[in-house]
Every structure is written in C-alpha cells, then in structure tokens.
Amino acid sequence: MNTNSTDFACLVTGFLTDYLPHHRCYSRNTILSYRDTLKLFLRFLKEEKETSPNSFYIKDFKRELVIEFLEWYRNNGAGITAANQRLAALKAFSDYAQLEHIEYIAPLQNVSGIRAKKAAPKEVSFLTVEQMSSLINSPDVNSHTGFRHRVILTLLYDSGCRVQELCDITIADISLGSVATVRLHGKGNKYRTVVIADATAKLVENYLSRYRSYAVGTDFLITNRYHRKIDRDGISYIIKKYVDAIRQKDATFPEHVHCHMFRHSKAMHMLEAGINIVYIRDFLGHEDISTTMVYVRADNRLKNDAINALAPKVTEERDFPDWNKDKDLLQFLNSLK
C-alpha cells in the first residue's frame, strides 16, 4: 500500500482482501459483488461530488452521503432490490470500519443504521410441466451438440441448481449408484447433494460413456464447443436458441425464459406434487425457509385464481342497500364511547 494512501483506501483493501475472505469466509462471487459496490461508490464521488478517491477519508463516509449515493444509483435505473444489495455491502464495510477506526464509531453507526427500502414482492415466473418438457426435449440427441444441450437443460431443471452451480459441476460430483445424486457447490462456499431422477441419471451416464469416456474426476461435466468450462452466457444462449425455435411453432410459449426460471419451475412443480416445503428448502439450498415461501405464495395465488374461475355463482349479484342512509343507526354507533 502506498504510504500516501488515505485511511479509506486502506480500509477498502483490508475489507476486500482480508476481512471478507478470511474472517467472514465469503465466497469469491460475494466479494466481487461488494467490490463492485465500492467501485460504484467511488464513481459517484467522482462524477457527482467531484471528489477524488485520493482525497476521500473515512471521516467523510457519512450517512447523508450514502443515502445520496443510493438515490443517485436508483435515478440511474437501478431497482429497489439492487439498491438494497448495494446498501448491504456498504453497511458491511461500515461495520468493518468501526472495528478498525473506533474514533469514528458514531458516524459509522449512523451508516449501519440506514434502513433498506421495501420492495414489492416479485412474481415468480415459471414454466408449466408441459412447457418445460417441450423445452428440455427440443435438442436432437443424435448429434454431439444436441446431446450436450439436452444434458444441460435436463440437469438445470431436475437438480434445481443455480446456473453457476451447473457450470461448476465436475465429473466426480456425479454419483450414478442405486440412488443417483449430484453434488452442488452453492452460495457461501457450501455444498449440498441432491437426488436426480433415474431418467436424468441414464442421460448423464450415456453422455459420459459416449463423449467423456477419457475425462477424469476433476474435469468439468459440462464444457463448451471449445472443450472449456461453460459459463452463464453460454447456457443462456443455449436456452434462448431452443425457446426461439419453439416460439416459431407456438407463439404462446413464453418469450423470455432465463436460467433461473428452470429452478423456479422445479420448485413450483415439486410444490404442486405435494412435496413438503422443508424438503424443497433443503433441495434448493436455501438457508432460511422464508426464501422458499415465495413459491407457496405463488402457488396460493394460482389456486385462488382457479377457485374464482371455477366457483359456481351460488349467490346472486345484486345491489345491496346503502347502510349510510340509516341515520338512526349511524347516530347510535357514533354515540358509543
């Protein structure tokens, strides 16, 4: 570190290179997200406050400035949820700074005390069983590329994994015993093992014997056409390719199908099948069951819509008398103390 570095710069370095990875044991992706938040904050200082990072000190890191940054971020097109994620990163940095510079604990506590804005709950987007089946079975398994694409789409749905978890699966993570499983490397550097269907296991087994027979356990299960580890963009491209093909024949098929929709769809289908919400939580790797409850609320909305659509007209529709016209009753109610 340059001897002329500000205390703010020193704190940022310690926060990202020591505190988060070694004391909090955060994953690389989380650390990169926190880093990006601090980069955005520095950009805000330069563009809006005309303040160079070389002249910004921790004593200047105040509640009012952070709130102004969040407003700037939202005004530039960010949603409430995204702004709340940036706020969480800055509050974590503030908590760390309090430990390192106790003389500024009061103003830093004011930063840590900023409340996140409430965002409207997002609607869960998912495909029906029929739609998912149509999408997964689109690739032609008679070609190497088609077979690989079928494996990608099938595993993405059947394991309920996040897209990065799919990219990270190695051959050693696949177990094709009497009960087939796949080991997933999830958020927070945590692992979980999920059961996959027999049909999925057979598909993966054929894929390994046909195209990956010389691969070793540490090799990635899914590779791109250049035989390198596939990434999120590659999987998104594959999904879009088959969605576009389906929509040419069926215009009612959802146009925007993203990777996470496979995970949403699996959770909703499990719920519809009567599987316990606690098992679904563990299957998806959620730490808190409240995260999984979003699927229950979505399922309840669907059931409510179905009930209202099918409900018989038991009671006749009519105009009921206006109770406001009963002045004596109103006077009586108003007289009650």
Automatic annotation (TrEMBL):
Residues 6-98 form the Core-binding (CB) domain. This is Tyrosine-type recombinase/integrase. Gene3D superfamilies: 1.10.150.130, Intergrase catalytic core. Site-specific tyrosine recombinase, which acts by catalyzing the cutting and rejoining of the recombining DNA molecules. GO terms for biological process: DNA integration; DNA recombination. It comes from Blautia wexlerae. CDD domains: INT_RitC_C_like. The lineage of its organism: Bacteria, Bacillati, Bacillota, Clostridia, Lachnospirales. Residues 122-308 form the Tyr recombinase domain. Belongs to the 'phage' integrase family. Keywords: DNA integration, DNA recombination, DNA-binding. Pfam families: Phage_int_SAM_1, Phage_integrase. One of its GO terms (molecular function) is DNA binding.
